[in-house]
Write a structure and sequence with these properties.
Elements: H1 21-37, H2 44-79
Helix pairs in contact: 1-2
Length: 84
Amino acid sequence: MKPGKASALVTAGIYKLTRNPMYLGLVLLLCAWAFYLAAIWPFVGPVLFIAYINRFQIGPEERIMGAKFGGDYADYVSRVRRWI
C-alpha cells in the first residue's frame, strides 16, 4: 500500500520466482473461478484485473522501488519476471 515506506528489498522465497506473488495468486484465483463457472465470459475478470493492476498498482510501485533501491532493484528486475 505504501512502497515508499519499504525499508528492505525482499528477494528470497517466493520473490525469487515472481515480483508480485500476491497479484499472481489473485489472478490464479480468478482463473480458477472462471474454470469453475465453465463459461468464457468470466475470463474477462482476470484480463481486466491484470490490465488494471499493471497500470495503477505495479507501475507506480516499480517506479518508487527503483528510485529507493536503485541498482539493487534494477538487478532484481532483470533476474525475476513480473508475473511468472
